[in-house]
Amino acid sequence: MREARKEARFCESTCMNRCSWFNRFAKAAARATGKPMAFILAAATIIIWGVTGPLFGFSDTWQLVINTGTTIITFLMVFLIQNTQNRDSDAIQIKLDELIRATKGAHTALLDLEELEDEDIERIRDLYEEIATKSRQAMEAGEDDTGTPFVHIENASGNHNEAHLKHTRKTAARRARKRASR
Asked: Are 63 and 130 within one domain?
């Protein structure tokens, strides 16, 4: 209960009273139902229900009570859990976006990556899997696997060979200018 009050105060102070009553309730309910005491209470309810079966002759009403109760609780908990999960996911995504934004040399095209189409995300994942494969091969050959390899992230549309050619040409042109200036 103390944690729920702390969470509500934190929410009020950080959100400047913009947190809805539902968010405060969902946070408190998620924390409370995630505690061992909530499990013990649920288990005790089931045990009591089972023990009272013979008293009620295992009647339809006796079965209906537990079925109705668990259905209602499950139905409501789905929404509370989904709300908490969405909020946590959004917060983690924002934190990751901030880390990407603040890291020098990071691809800011990865910001808001979750909004891309599945095919684009798959292409970007393939690029990073390729880097991981090359790093593992380097390690097996006794080489260093650290560093910041170039990633053609700016071309998520799929034509990676063209992006590589552009990068190679730019690099070659840069080297040629450096040599010419010496």
From this structure: no
Whether the per-residue pLDDT at 108 is higher than 70: the answer is: yes
The domain of 149 spans 116-181
Confirm if 136 and 145 have CB atoms less than 8 A apart: yes
Q: Nearest-CA neighbor of 153 among 121, 107, 90, 106?
A: 107
Q: Whole-angstrom Cα distance, residue 34 to residue 80? A: 12
- Mapped onto helix, strand or coil, the DSSP state of residue 119 is helix
In a domain, 146, yes or no: yes
Three-state helix/strand/coil letters over 35-100: CHHHHHHHHHHHHHHHHCCCCCCCCHHHHHHHHHHHHHHHHHHHHHHHHHHHHHHHHHHHHHHHHH
Q: Of 102, 131, 150, which residue constitutes the final position of a domain?
A: 102
pTM for the whole thing? 0.56
Residue 58 and residue 38 in contact, taking contact as beta carbons nearer than 8 Å: no
Specify whether 167 is located in the same domain as 144: yes
CA distance 27 to 20: 11
Measured in whole angstroms, the distance separating CA 56 from the mean position of its chain's CA atoms is: 47
Range name among 30-34, 90-94, 173-177 with the lowest pLDDT average: 173-177
